[in-house]
Amino acid sequence: MTLALHGGTPVRTAPWPSWPPPIDEAQWELVTAVLESGRWGATQGGSVCAELAEAFARRSGVPYGVAVGNATLGLFAALRGLGVGPGDEVIVPAYTFVASATAVLLAGAVPVIADVDPADLHLSARTTEAAVTGRTAAIMPVHLAGSPADMDPLNAFAARHGLAVIEDAAQAHGATYRNRPIGGLGDAGVYSFQASKAMTAGEGGLIVCRDEIVYEAVWSACNVGRLRGGTWYGHPGVGWNLRLTEIQAALLLPWLDHRLDAEIDRRNAFATALERELGHLGDAVTVVPRPPGTTRDSRHLLMLRLRTPVGRSFLLRAMAAEGVPLDAGYPPLGTLPALTEAGARAEPCPAADAAAGDVVWVRQPMLMDDPANAAGVAEALAKVLTEGRQA
Ligand SMILES: *Cc1c(COP(=O)(O)O)cnc(C)c1O
């Protein structure tokens, strides 16, 4: 079996599902209704952003939600709403998207980059403990890849130290932890609707929270410092226009009603099938385990750990040639010079460093394929590992 990289026949030639999937009837209807109404922004009296915020709050098990332009701004607004700012430190995991840290910089606080658990790659109470100082004001667990961080010990740790907890739920719409929805487990939770996420309007974000005072502060931060119910040109707080458009909300609201759960089930079916197939490869490729307490994984990504003499960059090139493109994943945040130059502090992060070398991702569009095609992914991996060892 010659590798496709060396002129052989690729294992897979059919295209993978594209993302996002085609929009459905309910989305067309609501988007059209909003367009025809002329109320494209929430300040014109439209109600779809508010409905979306309410629906997300309900699904997160909390009373309040605020729709925003994207999750980076959502994390920023959540930090503002919780009173985190200059002089404060916020602990973020080393293995996450860069926005978890840059949102902290936007709030004028110091991102402290903590290591992740070596097995499940999430922030844990243990790795958080190593990074805490007298200036720590908040922690930001990330529900990485759609599996929730182990929130009970993190919340207990935060309570002991008097820290706010902001869940970065950008990758985990619909996930549950010990049968409780994520997003509402900390003081605030933030979802993303950017193009690669499980629900998308191209861009977008949403903040949920439990406490009314936090809600008022977050809302004000997103609405030019206005007071809810106050006068238009009264700005008792400092705030910005961070709002989502009604048109975006109209794409998202029906998705939440009709599609999200079915799509999560579909991705999980593919991931389960792939994990079974990978069993034939022994230790060489294994699924990165979830943190304790995951009761529903929204499967934004499937992370795989390689234990093989075949180099990862060769493997990624060879897999792409076989028609099965995988992803190298994140560099540890502490290795990004721009972050440390901007004031971030990085703890030693051996587990994130290791993950940056031997973890690869199966991305969401591939997980949306027919689970029967998981066998082809395993077959391509087996081929590349066997032939690559001889190459
Ligand atoms: C996508 C993502 C963000 C940022 O979301 P945007 O909506 O693009 O600003 C933040 N954190 C994580 C973990 C993400 O995956």
Write a brief caption for the model.
This protein has helices spanning 25-37, 48-59, 71-81, 99-106, 125-129, 151-161, 212-222, 246-258, 260-278, 312-321, 337-341, 350-358, 364-367, 374-390; strands at 64-68, 89-93, 110-114, 136-139, 164-168, 176-177, 180-181, 188-192, 205-209, 285-287, 294-296, 302-306, 345-346, 359-362.
Question: How much helix, percentage-wise, in residues?
Answer: 25-40%
Number of helices: 14
**Attached small molecules:** pyridoxal-5'-phosphate
Given as residue ranges, the uncertain stretches (5+ residues, pLDDT < 50) are: none
Indicate the radius of gyration in whole angstroms. 22 Å
Give a count of the beta strands, DSSP E runs of length 2 or more: 14
How is the largest sheet built, in terms of strand order?
A: 1-9-8-5-4-2-3-13
Beta percentage is 5-15%
CATH superfamily of the largest domain: Type I PLP-dependent aspartate aminotransferase-like (Major domain)
What would you say the CATH architecture of the largest domain is? 3-Layer(aba) Sandwich
**Succession of helices and strands:** HHEHEHEHEHEEEEEHHHEEEHHEHEHH
CATH class of the largest domain, named Alpha Beta
Q: What characteristic shape results from the CA principal axes? A: globular
Please state the structural category. Answer: alpha/beta
User: Within the CATH hierarchy, at the fold level, what is the topology of the largest domain?
Assistant: Aspartate Aminotransferase, domain 2
Terminal CA distance reads 12 Å
Characterize the largest beta sheet: strand count, sense, and whether it forms a barrel.
8 strands, mixed
Please tell me the overall pLDDT. 97
Q: What count of structural domains?
A: 2
Organism: Nonomuraea solani
Pfam family, one: DegT_DnrJ_EryC1
GO molecular function: pyridoxal phosphate binding; transaminase activity
Active site: 197
